[in-house]
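User: Sequence in, structure out. Go.
Assistant: Echoing your sequence, followed by the C-alpha cells.
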Amino acid sequence: MVSKRSKIRLKKGDTVVAITGEDALSDKSGKVLYVDPVKQRAIVEGFNLVKKHMRKTQDNPEGGIVEIEAPVHISNLRLKQKAE
C-alpha cells in the first residue's frame, strides 16, 4: 500500500503552540525538535512528556525514571504568531 503524504508546513526549529490536548490547556509554546513526515508526527520541546525507565549504564550511571518528549500529531499543532 502506498501512503499519500500531505505537505507538512512545520520544520525543525519552528515555534509552535498546541491547539488540543493537555498542552493546549496550559497555553505553552515550544520549539520543534524533529518532524516525521511519513507518520505526520513531530517532537516538540516540553510537550507530551512521558516517563521512561532507564537502566544503569556507563553513560547514565544513576538510571531511574526520566521524562522525555513523545511525538505529537501535527494536526494538534499550529505555528506561533509573531508579535508585532
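User: And one key feature?
Assistant: The beta strands are 15-18, 29-36, 41-44, 49-54, 64-69, 72-73, 77-79.
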